[in-house]
Give the backbone structure.
Amino acid sequence: MENISQLIARDLLKIKAVFFRPEEPFTWASGIKSPVYCDNRLTLTAPEVRTHVEQALAETIKREYPEVEILMGTSTAGIAHAAITGHILGLPMGYVRSGSKDHGRQNQIEGRMEAGQKVVVVEDLISTGGSVIEVVNALREAGGQVLGIASIFTYGMKKGLERLAAANVRNVSLTDFDAVAQAAAEEKYIQPEDVSRLLAFRDNPSDESWIGGKN
């Protein structure tokens, strides 16, 4: 029987939310060359996949963070997922901006979160972990008790894992890079021999020896 990680991995591939191109790498804003492009916003326009994702997020949060009192989405990709999942669970939700507004009340956190409330952050994907940790820090500074993160996809990069550990924050993802790479090979989006190249990228993004089959 297909587990949630496999189901979501295949869903993301089917709608091209995760797209592999090991022969012609994408270039991230940081300059890192990547064999994969992720756009989990596409789940929002694919109703069947969206249902799988939101139900899985709800079940994951209920199981892993049973004491949760409020959900907070990351801006902007996590907002819709936090809203839909919050509706399923009957929980309040809000979201955290990347910085404070320069007008009005100059909020960074939108929605009412009381000091001491137990919060779960909803994120669409985690790579190096920097942006989601900024969200966690903003919530902590505002008095929130962050139980952890629920995300759709994580790369499992060493840098990201180390940052999360240093920030003392737990992340539970519906699926990960390994599961998606394996599903991509099984569904013939990539060649079986490409899997080791993809995992080499995951383990050390700065080493580009995997490009062009050199790994």
